[in-house]
Amino acid sequence: MSNSMRWTRREWIGAGLASVAIGALPVRARAATTLRWATVLPTNHPSVTMMEKVAKQLREDTGGSIDIQTFPAGQLGSSRDVIESASSGAIQIVDEGAAQFGQFVPQFSILEAPYIWRDPQHVRRVLSSPLMDEMNAMLVAKRSMRVIGSTYYGRRHVTSGSKAINSVDDMKGFKLRIPEVDTFRAMAEAWGARPTPLNIGELYLALSQGAVDGQENPLPTIQSNKFFEVQKYLVLTGHIITPRLIVVNETAWQALTAKERQSLTGAVQTHGQEQDNEILAQEAKLADTFKAAGMTVIQPDLESFRKPVLASVPAKFESKWGKGLWERIAAL
Question: Whole-model pTM?
Fold first, then answer.
């Protein structure tokens, strides 16, 4: 048996955890590899369409040797749950907002920091730079996960159920649902709001019952989760551009052949770009769609939102991110 076919006991355990059914046999005879891909996004979101297209292409490219099973709509748990499952190997692929990975590697939360990005092209430039390679190496070393791609999730805006928001002064005491991310909490606090962490799967009910006053998300997410049905005001703050990272468990990744890895990353890149284009197309028209559906669309005083955040958040997180990281990203 060649060295490449010898598996240590640890590797066998890791492969079992990851549900990667690969036997110590020549490739032509081995069983199919099953990769479970989980997301909290609903089935009608463009990201889920992308997942399904990637799965289909992998089956075709590999002759069925790779079988990706998709689990949308939080079937396998909250954002935190599915990331932890990808780290442990209980699932093999996850896509989540970049800042969610900051719970494992603090530097990752800067990738979803408020007001750090100029535009989607800036995001793409940074995520394909050597800086991202450095961060990815830390994620592999610390938590056995590897970034293999990214998608554009959109520009985030505030919505409100009963109160018009024209400037940051109107956010005082506002119960704002946020993801379970420390930078989002700091942003809300800088606005004078009351940050309320909540899983997105529970958010529609919370908004409809008034448990929170509002939320913030990209327009396609507001659409796919139907938040516009239970919110009266759309406030075009554009405070964060969110990249979603597509991350694979390292044990599962190492179990793939070089050709299978290439097929997976190629499919993610191709269909990820399609997803990005669809998100951009939706963003161009959804504000008008929501207005036609009865929402009041507000163009707020943007500088009033921006100023208190930039005055406090970068300095507060510099020790976690590393001195100079904000400036490195801004310079690219």
Answer: 0.90
